[in-house]
Amino acid sequence: MNNLYNFFLWIFCISLIINILGCSSASNTIRYGNPNQESDKSNDAVRFSSTKNQNVDTAFNYNATSISDTDDTPINEKGIDISVVMKKLSSNNNTEKLNAAQNTLRDKMLMEIIKYLDTPYKYGGHTSNGIDCSAFTQRIYQKVFSITLLRSAHEQFTEGTDVDEVDDLKFGDLVFFNTRRGIKPGHVGIYIGNHFFAHASTSNGVIVSSIDDEYYSKRFMGGRRIENILGTNK
Q1: What integer is the mean pLDDT of 89-98?
Q2: Annotation says 13 is catalytic
Q3: Is 187 a catalytic residue?
């Protein structure tokens, strides 16, 4: 009887040891994961999709640590009050004269920009909860002109035709600035007239600024004009 009892006790102990070793192995797999899987996940993180025809509302994945945005725009910059901008754009001293259809289109663009004013900056963001500079220009173009721009400032700098001088800019032109080391251009906005442009500032969110501001005038790289957004008169 004792021998039978010892036999079953021995079987039980062996089974218990096997179970403990098995659970320990499984726990390590769950806790630490497969190194290859972790590597694959990190490789999947990208800032943006460069597909030209993608929908603006598509979610963009991004690696927030891949590029520093800290020097995009001045930290202490204050946006220009939109009421001041509107007054100057509608005044008789406005340097850019538009026909009725173009005025209507610019008003539509300004109304869309106003919706985004004070939206916080978010690297890789593309919604009213947070947006970056190139996503902002992309969304405005999609909403107002039904044109889908490429995703990054660098890519958008390849679209349309060159506008080298500030005085040659027209409303709706993309404006670019050299604000980062090693990445040119580092920042993009939309020209709205009278040397004003709207953009998503890294420090202040969506604001209106002046190209005549010392920071921007020194870093202005030029503009790009996307054809046909204002018809043949542009």
Answers
A1: 74
A2: no
A3: yes
